[in-house]
Amino acid sequence: MTERIKRWIADTWCGVSGLEQLFGLKAGMSLHELSALTPLVPVPGAQGLYCTMQLPQAWPEFERYVLEISSTHGLCKIVAHTPTLYSDASGKCLRGCFDGVAARINRRANSSQRYDVYQSGSVFADPDLWMVALHLGDAALAELWTGSDLAGVVGVQAAALRVKSVDVYRGALELMLELDNFQAHAADADALSRVRAQATGAMPGCSVV
Questions:
Q1: Both ends of the chain: CA-CA distance in Å?
Q2: Which of 13, 70, 76, 173 has the fewest Cβ atoms within 10 angstroms?
Q3: Are 83 and 173 contacting, i.e. CB atoms less than 8 angstroms apart?
Q4: How far apart are CA 182 and CA 160, in angstroms?
């Protein structure tokens, strides 16, 4: 039996997956390691963020990925974006794509929390006007995975999938994955921000970079 067939059987039937079978990456990978796998373009004005159109095991639903790479902790966050999708007024296409991506994650996860809600009192709280409600901020569709939800997904501590509006005819999906080392990275970033704030406060008129 070839290794390719073994991997296919493991992914299809075992239902337990690490990050390797999400996008072919691992938490903690360095900028050098990631650059050897895919072309990375720095996001202007955003330190540690890089954009790519390719990943070793990309999902067909997504066209663009933003990687957060800490100089200390390596790869700690992935945000995947679909192309802009046209949909009818009820959001059938967007909602169908959302359900498909969520189902793929739920084959590996234990459970999730879905939020398919309207703003209280919205005059657009009508399934046939869902795209209008979404664009105006009167509707939201998201699914979250945290803690024990992700016990079967090695390397990921939290995930969120949401629908974003472009206009009343178009929208897109965004999938965010916080990896196991994200909290350590966030703690370091908070500490650095406090140091910068204290230094700036102690020296009026000066900025700390």
A1: 56
A2: 13
A3: no
A4: 14
pLDDT digits (tens, 9 = 90+) for 76-116: 999 999 999 999 999 999 999 999 999 989 988 888 999 99
Cα 97 from Cα 104, distance rounded (Å): 11
Amino acid code (one letter) for 41:
V
Nearest to 94 by CA among 172, 160, 176: 172
Give this prediction's pTM.
0.81
The residue among 67, 6, 79, 75 whose CA lies nearest residue 42 is: 67
Nearest to 122, CA basis, from 113, 110, 134? 134
CA angle 76, 78, 79 (to 5 degrees): 145
Q: pLDDT tens digits for 124-168?
A: 999 999 999 999 999 999 999 998 888 878 789 999 999 999 999
Query: Which residues are registered as beta bridge partners of 113?
Result: 144
